[in-house]
Structure formats: C-alpha cells, structure tokens
Amino acid sequence: MGALPVSTVETSEAGASAVTADQPSPAGRATFPPGFLWGAATAAYQIEGAAQEDGRTPSIWDTFSRTPGKVLGGDTGDVACDHYHRFRDDVRLMAELGLGAYRFSISWPRVQPTGRGPADRRGLDFYRALVDELLEQGITPMATLYHWDLPQELETPASGGSAAGGGWTARDTAERFAEYAGIMADALGDRVELWSTLNEPWCSAFLGYASGVHAPGRTDHVAALRAAHHLNLGHGLAAQALRAALPTQAGIGIALNPSAVRPLTESPADRDAQRRIDALANRIFTGPLLKGAYPEDLLADTADITDWSFVRSEDLAAILHPLDFLGINYYTPAVVSAASDPDAPRKDGHNTGSHSPWPGADGVAFHRAPGELTAMEWPVDPTGLTDLLLEYTAQAPGVPLFVTENGAAFDDEVDEDGRVHDPDRVRYLHGHLTAVHEAMRRGADVRGYFLWSLLDNFEWAYGYSKRFGAVYVDYGTQARIPKSSAHWYARAARDGALPPVD
Q1: What is the pLDDT of residue 16?
Q2: How many domains, in total, are found in the chain?
Q3: CA distance linking residue 230 with residue 235, whole number of Å
C-alpha cells in the first residue's frame, strides 16, 4: 500500500469542494489534492508494432486481425504507432505534457513467446528500458500484465507443441499466466510499484468467446463462462505470484470495466433485466474478487448453459486475494429492458455482430442512453462514472480506486495550420473529471485518473478508423501532434485543477 498516493478531497459545510491550504484554486474550479496521479494509458498491441521483431511471436490478435472480415479495412497491429522504436520520444512527449503516471501493458508473446518456459531477454530489456525512461522523466509507471494479447500458442498450439491450448477456456492458461507474472515481477519489480493483472476481463471473455467480435473470435456461451472463471483464477494466481516476488510496498490490483446498468423503466421486468446484466457484466467478477463466491442468481440464470463444474473449491480462495487497488474503466452507461422480441440480436454498444455476448440474458434488450454521441456512437454521460466510483467504494471499503481508463473517440482532423482541435474531447474530459471530483467529494477514495488514450492507435475490430488519443498520430509518417485536449489535460495536471472549457 505504500506505493499508492494519498488522495482526499475536503468538503465544506455547504457541500462544495474545498482545497487544502497549500493548494489554492480559482473559484469554481474542481481541484484535486496533492499526490493525485494524472496519467494516460495505452495497450501493447495497439501501439507497439514490431510484431515480428526480437523474438515476439503471434498473439491471438495477430491471428484475428489477419482473418478476413474480422477487422475493419483489414488493419493489423503490425506497425501501429511504432512505439517499440519510438518509446523514448513518446516518453519525452508525456513529460512535456506534464503527465505524472503512465499505464502501459506488457506484450506476453514478446517476453514469453510460447506462453510458457523461459523469457526472451530482448522483450524484457524493452520494458526495462521503457520503465527506466519513465522514471528518469519523473513519471510513475503502472504495468498491466494482460491487455488481450494472449500468445497464440496457448489458444491453438502448433502441431507437436507442448501447450495445452484452449486459451482462457483452459485452466492451464491461468496457471501459465501466474508463471508469466512471476517473470515480470522478477524483471521489473525493482522499478515498478503499481501492477494491474488484467484489463477488462469481461471483454476478453464475452467479446472474445461469446460474440466473437474480439480475438480469438469464438461464439460459444459455455466457453465464455469458462473463460470468465479462468480469467478470475488467472488474476488470483498472478496476484499471489506478484506478491511473492515484489517488495512489500508494491500495489497490486485489476482493471475492470464495470457497467453502470440502468433499467429503462421501474417495471419489475425491466428491473430483472437490469439484475441479469449486472450479474454478467459486473458481479461475475466482483463476486469472487471481493466476496469469494459467484452470485447465486448468476448461477441460476446460466444453469441451462453450464453447471459450472469447471469451478473448483480451491479456486475461489485463490481469486479472493487482497487488492491494493481497484481500477475502473468507464465510457458509457447501459440502459436495458425486458425484450419485446427475445429472438432479436442483443446489441449493446460493444457487440456489433449477430452473436450475443450475454449468456442467459436472451430476454434483455439494450437501448441507447440519452446524450451526445462519440464517434463510437456511445452516449456521453459522466454521471455513470460517479455512480460506479461510489458503488465500488461501498462494495470494496478500504480499497483505493483508480480510473484506469476513460476517454472518447471523435473524428479528429489536422487543420491547415498543422493543429488538431478537439473541443468535444475537452468537454468530455472536463465532464468526466468533474464526475470523479464529485465522487471524491462524496467519499470515494480515488487516487488517480488515466486518460484513454495517450495516442491514437489500433482500435481493435475498428482498425485505425477511430481516434481516442489526446495525441494525433499520422500513421503514414508516425508524426505525433498533441491535440487541444492534450494541452487542456496538461494544464489540469500542472495545476491540479480543471481548466475552464473554452
């Protein structure tokens, strides 16, 4: 816990945010306490490139992106932002923007090419050099062990290979993940104090194995539920491996993407729809992580799909590993109701395919929440972030929170002066950081905020068609252009207070 900054917001009797004596703030500006981490986040496959260099082997996303029709435009992460070769420049850019923290993910197949056995020194050296550069610039690193790029060998072993295969549907993958966690702790434990095991296990399990719109592209509800459990188990085993190898002051957590699920009406049927999606989106992870058990209603809802016999009694004790922090990724709320046509495809903002990512929820319909839309056609609603931070404060008392991802895609373009103006993103950030501040004022222990994303990048099944970055990337020249939102965020980080929105 010693690695985590202390973060509290004082509140006046009138309920307005008050600042400490050494933190003056202009009237009307939401002000954050000293030590609050102002960061940005990325993921390895989305930015690194160098997909076939220095011993890196294919991940499930390399395979998936090469499958015709799976990724818009046939795009791949082969080059992406070329961060592998340009990381020093990118870290200097972070420093120029005044970022205090950087959340990056480690490419598992870059450091352990088959997902088992010894590490490749070249991969470890890359991450050592990256972290050294961050520390030299005074930027706190947060390492994420898994952001969806499973070594392909663990999904479908090569002929004659020794891996068991099956990806996250297999218990072996959880065990291999713990081994990999130990490797990374040994390599970076003297440099990195904040560690996240998994990023958005819901996406890995249900978009990867149920709807098939993410790698590995399977459409099997039993496989998705098995994957969810083995992701939970992988987290628990990896947390144990990290704790055994890291200094005592290291902080270990997980980044979830909980859904702020709201019923369309207060009818019993719509409330039941909310309950079902809450179980599949949220409590399937927080049940074992925070309480050591899967929710009874989830087991009942999915009883016709599986008997959950893949869960062993000792698994739940392993998953219930004490968390030093909990990461919350948030983009938009979910509005649900009972479906008028139970056979209609379930489309929820994540799923654009014909297969549902929601096992046992065929009777649920999704509706677009009100509000401005981003380029992803996701409604903008900062209140969902406040709600989640307060909810998880209540669910996990004493566990500090980070907003580990929050951001928006817009149709950004370079103007004739070579600049990128993105006022919509500035308004988005102002609204969501105000929502974070409100949650803190009401008692949420939020220690930092990581903007998604530092750079425009490979946006999974959308290829390079969507731009989430605060920094514009010209993929042809690899030029970086900080957008107006990057400059706005830099002011917020420098002042510890939200600048006005022009």
Answers
A1: 32
A2: 1
A3: 8
